[in-house]
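Protocol step 4 of 6: structure prediction from sequence.
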Amino acid sequence: MMIGIKYCGGCNSVYNRGRQTQLLKEQFPEHEFRTAAAGTVCDVWLIVCGCMRSCASTDGLTARKRMFILPTERSFEEVLAYLRAERSEAKSRGRDEAAGEEVSPADAGNGRKTVLRVGQSAQMEKTFF
């Protein structure tokens, strides 16, 4: 999963924003973390604000799944819970999607979801009676 990180300007930070994101990276090494760039599409965006003002702009950021605004250290708990649930769900489907393992065509025929990435295509056939 691609996780984008955008920091506020840091003018009034009340906690160590870098340390909190580093802890996430260490706990979830299977994900790819990127810093913000205009027009970037990520599965999840973390808008890391240093205070309750939460002045960081989300303009030009697109999240396929979820966007988190994180004004305090405690707000990272929601991200941790979300990423743990995603990891658990991926494992319960019989493969580790976060590690990039693909589903074989045989598995796809057994009701498993196939994950498509940009540039890939798929085709499905179904017989109706």
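Step 5 (inspection) to follow. The beta strands are 2-7, 32-35, 41-48, 62-70.
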